[in-house]
Amino acid sequence: MSKVSIRFLGAAGTVTGSRFLLSCGQTKVMVDAGLFQGLKELRLKNWTPLPIDPAELSAVILTHAHLDHCGYIPKLVKDGFRGKIHLSKYTGKLAEVVLRDSARIQTEDAKYAAKKGFSKHNPPQALYEEKDAAQAVEQFAVHPFRERIKVAEETYVTFYPAGHILGAAFVVVEFFGKKLLFTGDMGREHHPLLAPPEDIPQQRYDAVITESTYGDREHVQPSTNFEQAITQTIQRGGSVLIPAFAVDRTEVILVEIRELMEAGRIPRVPVYADSPMALKALRFYREAIDEGSAEIRPEIVAEWRGKDPFNPGTLVELETVEQSKTINNPKSPCIIISASGMATGGRVVHHLRDMLPNQLHTVILVGFQAMGTRGRRLADGEQEVKMHGVFVPVKAQIEQMGSFSVHADADELVDWLKTISEEPGQVLVVHGEAGAADVFSNRIRTQLGWKSHAPEDGEAVEL
């Protein structure tokens, strides 16, 4: 009989590019197909052909709609994958927005680079185009949580709510007699909107494939208070720019700002939501609340159904590029929330270019900043950052607030793993920067006494 293996084609030794290939004989199934982000050496991997022909894939299973988990799917489709992409309801809605936006930005960036002449590609290229994203959406197969679905020969998947972003799931995959648990990205117990992750279904697993984004640390309260940073900036006549992931982080930040304004703890100034993708995601979160989705905390549904928990009364949604340009260099105090969350692209780069040289302003980083991203460079205190081919001086105040993270930290992950009914065959630790995955793997071995290993990029593990 053919052997069952899992090959790590991304998110091994790094926190981005989740791609896990299950193989047995002629059957090949990929769990997540994300883009590499951050360091140039990682981004270049997006252009490296897969070790298999995408046309050979039987199916793709998607845990959630963040770009580092779904952003490579249109490339698979472009290169011949014609199978189904299995996902939850809201992952389907959000992934459509994310993939179409990714294709549009890549195409626009390629055109801009050609016009300005700062790309090393000649001519500059997009990894995939909007037609590829549209074709990918056509291949979506939406499934409810907790329902066992056959997706390929001797391959079944069951989705369970992970509480990370709307639609996010951890998945149980049965593959040629082997039972595998993929955490995807795990949420936290106290998300302001989403219900916490479900406990692990009680059965024995041959392998658990777990994320380790915060595998070497615990979330701590920031040394600088969020409301204090906003208040001080506005009092000195400056504005606050918050680079935020369009999906979920924007929602979490808007809820916090509304609560602070309603309590009189920060000044009531205009709040600009400046990301077409974030605005679409906001509509899906409102929809989930209004329909009483089980993914939303019951108390949120009870209080906010039919109302808007994201609007403090000063929210301005900027749909167009022309509207976005009006706040590039704000002349009066305001709060701008704009994507991308690591300042790698999108409208936030234009705002940073104009606001970073001004010491009146503050940039608040509210999410994980991967190595090699502008956000990481700002967090590390660099005095200038490169944007659109030129170096921009950093005079604005830079603050980093890890307390807004919607990733489980090391303690939370261990507590969740403890809900398993019996020791798994092995634990494979992925989705962590160099060192974090090893630290978390060691902790699983010492604290839980389980067999654990952090695979290297390209490694194949037989099950």
Notable traits:
463 residues; seven-stranded mixed β-sheet; 22 strands; 30% helix; alpha/beta; 14 helices
Describe the protein:
- The strands form four sheets. Strands 6-5-4-3-2-1-22 form a seven-stranded mixed β-sheet.
- Strand 9 and strand 10 form a beta hairpin.
- The protein has helices spanning 40-43, 67-70, 73-78, 89-116, 130-138, 226-235, 249-262, 276-290, 298-304, 321-325, 347-355, 374-379, 410-417, 436-448, and strands spanning 5-8, 19-24, 27-33, 59-61, 84-88, 140-143, 149-152, 155-161, 169-175, 178-182, 207-211, 240-243, 271-274, 315-317, 335-338, 362-365, 384-387, 390-393, 397-400, 427-430, 452-453, 460-462.
- It is α/β, with parallel strands linked by helices and 463 residues long.
List the helices and strands and how they pair.
Elements (H helix, E strand, L loop, with lengths): L4 E4 L10 E6 L2 E7 L6 H4 L15 E3 L5 H4 L2 H6 L5 E5 H28 L13 H9 L1 E4 L5 E4 L2 E7 L7 E7 L2 E5 L24 E5 L14 H10 L4 E4 L5 H14 L8 E4 L1 H15 L7 H7 L10 E3 L3 H5 L9 E4 L8 H9 L6 E4 L8 H6 L4 E4 L2 E4 L3 E4 L9 H8 L9 E4 L5 H13 L3 E2 L6 E3 L1
Parallel strand pairs: 3-4, 4-5, 5-6, 10-11, 11-20, 12-15, 12-16, 13-14, 13-15, 16-19, 20-21
Antiparallel strand pairs: 1-2, 1-22, 2-3, 7-8, 8-9, 9-10, 17-18
Short description:
Helix content is 30%, strand content 21%. The chain is of the alpha/beta class and 463 residues long.
